[in-house]
Design brief:
The chain is an alpha+beta fold and 163 residues long. The protein has 2 helices and 9 strands; from the N terminus they run αβββββββββα. Strands 1, 2, 3, 4, 5, 6, 7, 8 and 9 form a 9-stranded mixed beta sheet that branches. β5 and β6 form a beta hairpin. Keywords: Signal.
């Protein structure tokens, strides 16, 4: 008799305290991406948001979430294509309804944002942005310095001619 009651209690606790785990693609938008997720009831979430960059780029990502009563981010991290940790984001859990996360890194390739947290309330969700900005190649800096040097030589030559 105890075994069926134990199975029933385990089944009810699973239904009442559900967990969401998802992997999805961020939506391209301007010079970056947008992402969002929503759920209902008391739940925990463990999501992977996929995106990529072309060339060496600065990655800035931010996220915010809210629910009817309580919303908490546990972690907000940047992972490589094999889901290895690259950068740890900052997480700020403020008032009982809103939480924020932020991270910055310079990378290129395919990535995942790993978002982990929990919520209590009838409905909850989070949304965020990923902004990518090209980082100049070292050769670009060399060309710029050579150009400035050439301008300096020409300006100095003109000053000598007028004297």
């Amino acid at each position: 008799m105890k075994k069926p009651l134990l199975m029933l209690a385990l089944g009810l606790s699973t239904i009442l305290n559900s967990a969401y785990a998802a992997t999805y693609d961020a939506t391209p938008s301007g010079d970056g991406y947008q992402f969002s997720s929503s759920f209902s009831g008391d739940t925990s979430f463990d999501d992977y948001i996929r995106f990529s960059t072309e060339g060496q780029q600065t990655i800035l990502a931010s996220i915010s979430g809210s629910s009817g009563t309580n919303f908490t981010f546990t972690s907000f991290n940047l992972l490589d294509a094999d889901k290895n940790l690259i950068a740890t984001g900052s997480v700020l859990n403020g008032s009982p309804k809103i939480a924020f996360g932020f991270l910055e890194s310079v990378q290129y390739g395919d990535f995942f944002l790993h978002v982990v947290g929990s919520t209590v309330g009838a409905s909850a969700g989070y949304n965020g942005t990923i902004t990518t900005t090209l980082v100049p190649e070292p050769g670009s800096y060399a060309l710029m310095l050579a150009g400035l040097g050439l301008i300096g030589v020409i300006a100095r030559k003109k000053v000598r001619e007028t004297v």
